[in-house]
Design brief:
Layout (H helix, E strand, L loop, with lengths): L1 H5 L3 H17 L1 E3 L1 E4 L4 E4 L1 H8 L1 H9 L4 E5 L4 E5 L7 E2 L1 H18 L8 E4 H10 L9 H13 L3 E3 L11 E4 L2 H5 L2 H13 L7 E2 L1
Antiparallel strand pairs: 1-5, 2-3, 4-5, 6-10, 7-9, 8-9
Amino acid sequence: MINYYEELPPEEQRKVTESVQSLYRQTFLLERLYDKKTKRYQINREYYQCSKHLEFIRAYFAIMDIEVVENSQIGVIYIRGEQVLGEKLSKLATLYILILKLIYDEQMSTVSTSVNAVTSLGEIHEKLGTYRLLKKQPSATELRRTMTLLKRYQLIEPLDILEELDGQSRLVIYPTVNVVLMGDDVRALIETYTEGDEEDDESEV
């Protein structure tokens, strides 16, 4: 494994190192990312760099008992295992992920040529209200913190300025939400939150 890396040109070594660091830091690497300037999906070079050296990267992470999975159908490479320590999420962030998954599934059931979906904060809060999951509107600070977290893990891409969030603010939902939660998991968690109390429990992704 070490020989493979050392035999690469220095520039290629640098790119592999950056891809490994990004994958470990973000948990997910997407094949395409939405670029707000061009308003188009752009190729993520780190994804292809990781895919190109996938066997080496798998062997590298295997030392830490971490599995590297490539889902080429939805364009995601991600890591999983007991050693992958998820960040503590607020209840609001957890609920957002649940609703994002529901919206993603609804939109994907009506199209066949895309793996990305678009929603708005207003739609998210409407569904939270429908399921009686949100008793009070979150503060602007809570919203920005949640959006920043979900963006960092490449679950969403806010299309509008985070400092000016409102019901019309739009979000791209990335297919990584499929990796975080399966459809049945979403329904089970919604039932749990609906039946449970209103304490701000924390969970992990």
